[in-house]
Amino acid sequence: MQDNIIDRRSFFKLGLLGGSVVAASTLGGGAVLKAAELTGSPKSLQTKSNKIRGRMFFQTQTEFDTLSAACERIYPKDKQGEGAIGLGVPYFIDNQLASAYGYNDREYMQGPFIDGKKEQGYQTPMKRKDIFLEGVHALEENAKKRYKKSFSSLRGKEQDEILRDFEKGKIQTVGFKSSYFFTLLREMTIAGVLADPIYGGNDNKNGWRMMQYPGAQMSYIDKISSDEFFNIEPVGLADMED
């Protein structure tokens, strides 16, 4: 997490395999992100969609508001376009946690469980849904302990202070390190920004427009031999004809 929130999006263009969005997936019903070269200036964003969403995992509004506020600090609204909330990222994460991703379906979840190295992957018997729930509760508890307010009611700098301590592993959590929760939260926030809109985030494909990613185009045969840069209107899976 960077100290300057204005630069939080820059990692999409700098230092990530030479300016490309790397293919990533969320297991069991999650999004698959395609690699795309980031060139040119962002196109004007379309009007936000009016889709009706509902929570599938989080049971209280406070939990959902805390998640939403944390996602927005990781991917804030700025002159380039909408932040995590405007792109529907909290609903994307909520829906994913209610799916196979949240339950770690089709993953080996038996012991032994020991403290592993970063490159060894998932190292806890807890399912992702429980990690997120505990992590969101810890965010709220720390906000009330430090500032006597809910996390979603804090100023941006105050929210950043708490999130930074999570990132550094300084917050007490049960069954996992707070730094691991922060890592999951950041990964899922990014996924919600750039996943196909069919999964609930990337509202109206505006996340793709900011990155000038064309989405699920059927073919580039009419453009692939040209040296010209084409700013293509993105296409989602739901836009594909039978």
UniProtKB/TrEMBL annotation:
It comes from the Bacteria. InterPro entries: Gluconate_2DH_su3, TAT_signal. Pfam families: Gluconate_2-dh3. This is Oxidoreductase.
